[in-house]
Amino acid sequence: MSDLKVLIVCLGNICRSPMGEAVLRDVANKRGISDITVDSCGTAGYHVGELPDDRTVSTCRKHQIPIEHSARQIQTSDFTEFTHILAADESNLRNLERIRPKNATAELCLWGSFLDHKPIADPYYGGMNGFEQVYQQCVALSNAFLDKIGR
Ligand SMILES: *[C@@H]1O[C@H](CO)[C@@H](O)[C@H](O)[C@H]1NC(C)=O
């Protein structure tokens, strides 16, 4: 099977998508999948260069998931560099569809389409509980994604 290169995308790349990146990498490792690269980015550039939100970091620590990321914005080359681009919500998906180049090779879809078609809600303006929910959703979505593609 060919290498998997998965890009998780949300709006600012500090809350949901770095969590998704860390969780998918961890779930894949635990399944013994070694030929996978996971990265994340935002559709917007507000937080470029920033570390993940403290609440994303503490939620990952609590579950012993290593997390290390510096925020970046989506770029055209991502559409040919990655095999799968997974959007956190419908708004992110629409923005990605709008900038997708003609030569895109990555499969682009809502991450939730592998499970229940639900978006990952932005936890930024809520409390810690929202981050825990995002974590649980990322675990379920990581397993659903890997199941669906037969890994
Ligand atoms: C795809 O198209 C973009 C322009 O839309 C171009 O910059 C890029 O080099 C192309 N990539 C490949 C792999 O052909």
TrEMBL record:
GO molecular function: acid phosphatase activity; non-membrane spanning protein tyrosine phosphatase activity
The keyword Cytoplasm belongs to this UniProt entry's keyword annotation: yes
Alphabetized Gene3D superfamilies for the sequence: 3.40.50.2300
Organism lineage string: Eukaryota, Fungi, Dikarya, Basidiomycota, Agaricomycotina
Location in the cell: Cytoplasm
Predominant localisation class: cytoplasm
Pfam families per UniProt: LMWPc (PF01451)
A GO CC term assigned to this protein in UniProt: cytoplasm
Active site: C10 (nucleophile), R16, D122 (proton donor)
UniProt keyword Cytoplasm, yes or no: yes
Protein name (record): Phosphotyrosine protein phosphatase I superfamily
Residues annotated as domain Phosphotyrosine protein phosphatase I: 4-148
Keywords per UniProt: Cytoplasm, Hydrolase, Protein phosphatase
Coiled coil: none
Listed PANTHER family: LOW MOLECULAR WEIGHT PHOSPHOTYROSINE PROTEIN PHOSPHATASE, LOW MOLECULAR WEIGHT PROTEIN TYROSINE PHOSPHATASE
Protein family: Belongs to the low molecular weight phosphotyrosine protein phosphatase family.
The species this protein was found in: Rhodocollybia butyracea
Record's catalysed reaction(s): O-phospho-L-tyrosyl-[protein] + H2O = L-tyrosyl-[protein] + phosphate
Xref: InterPro entries: LMW_PTPase (IPR050438), Ptyr_pPase (IPR023485), Ptyr_pPase_sf (IPR036196), Tyr_Pase_low_mol_wt_mml (IPR002115), Tyr_phospatase_low_mol_wt (IPR017867)
